[in-house]
Amino acid sequence: MRIGAWSLDPPVFLAPMAGVSNRAFRVLARAEGARLCTTEMVSAKALVLGGARSFAIAELEPGEHPVAVQIAGSDPAVMAEAARLVERMGADIVDINMGCPVPKVVRNGDGSALLTDPAKAEAVARAVVEAVRIPVTVKMRAGWDGEHITAPEVAERLEAAGVQAVAVHARTREDRYAGPVNWEYIRRVKERVSIPVIGNGDVDSPAAALRVLEETGADGVMIGRAALGDPWIFRRLVHVWQHGMDPPPPDADERAAMARAHLDRLIALRGEGPAVREMRKHLAWYLRGVPGSSGLRARTATVSTRAEALELIEAWRERARDEAPVWN
Ligand SMILES: Cc1cc2nc3c(=O)[nH]c(=O)nc-3n(C[C@H](O)[C@H](O)[C@H](O)COP(=O)(O)O)c2cc1C
């Protein structure tokens, strides 16, 4: 699959996740095989106003290419300006958020609210496409609710505006993150456009990835929550893609090394205190499914220094090594 000059094979991508898909996590996902990673969403307005936190979100790791920076907003001029900024900061692709369901976002007409106004979605995309030389992509949901599945129409308009790929999270805004995903929505978008369509939503294993591709005709898959505490999912996907079989899961030593690397990258980014607090949720995710981890999982909520986090990682590495690896 291609986006602009980028050849993205195997087409296995890390989803944008606020609070997760920062530089530290993207580097780990990429090393495991994610061919394209997208940043956390950044408010176009905040970027244009020069907000330091927004700039930090859009900052890239040296050598981290290709990478997409996701901007959110619905004012075409502001979105165009934000797109120019992220292009200057080194983004390879600008991704527009048309999926965020959060009330604070949709109240402004941003995120998934754009799906209720296909003409406006098109105008935003056109303004961004005209503002930059790099490719523009869009991540969207299926529509606002089950009665309004606008993604196929919106996608058609986006293609006409010059958007080079769309990722479809196969849920509506009303579904939020719960309820069954309906991959049929992805197929309906795929039927309407000739640009690449990336399938997203509950793809949690290589088998699920192959199923979504087969059922929808999608050109690639995007993984979000299944990568939490499990960046190896990309390696498994690549392996299945290339060799047709699922490799063995990571052993205790690999899991511990990954958690340590994640911790240290976050510390380099934020400083020890904030990084360790942010790392608590990741430690709990890394421990998911590890035999005998329940006592240790409770401890993840209280670590506050690098030394405590390392001690915890070492404790579960030793326990896990003594038990059969039943992860995944
Ligand atoms: C914690 C979290 C943060 C997210 N943040 C974003 C975001 O910033 N931009 C976006 O387009 N989608 C965001 N999403 C949605 C995901 O990209 C993805 O579409 C969704 O989780 C479904 O895919 P999955 O089942 O593989 O997780 C977020 C999801 C989660 C769980």
UniProtKB/TrEMBL annotation:
The DUS-like FMN-binding domain, residue ranges: 14-314
Enzyme Commission code: 1.3.1.-
Keyword NADP among UniProt keywords: yes
Residues binding FMN: 16-18, 70, 139, 169, 224-225
Domain of life: Bacteria
Molecular-function GO terms, alphabetical: flavin adenine dinucleotide binding; tRNA binding; tRNA dihydrouridine synthase activity
InterPro entries per record: Aldolase_TIM (IPR013785), DUS-like_FMN-bd (IPR035587), DUS_fam (IPR001269), DusB-like (IPR004652), tRNA-dHydroUridine_Synthase_C (IPR024036), tRNA_hU_synthase_CS (IPR018517)
Keyword set, alphabetical order: Flavoprotein, FMN, NADP, Nucleotide-binding, Oxidoreductase, RNA-binding, tRNA processing, tRNA-binding
Cofactor(s) this protein cannot do without: FMN
Gene3D superfamilies from the UniProt entry: Aldolase class I (3.20.20.70), Putative flavin oxidoreducatase, domain 2 (1.10.1200.80)
Reaction catalysed by this enzyme: a 5,6-dihydrouridine in tRNA + NAD(+) = a uridine in tRNA + NADH + H(+); a 5,6-dihydrouridine in tRNA + NADP(+) = a uridine in tRNA + NADPH + H(+)
Entries under PANTHER family matching the protein: TRNA-DIHYDROURIDINE(47) SYNTHASE [NAD(P)(+)]-LIKE
UniProt similarity note: Belongs to the dus family.
Free-text function comment from the UniProt entry: Catalyzes the synthesis of 5,6-dihydrouridine (D), a modified base found in the D-loop of most tRNAs, via the reduction of the C5-C6 double bond in target uridines.
Protein name as catalogued: tRNA-dihydrouridine synthase
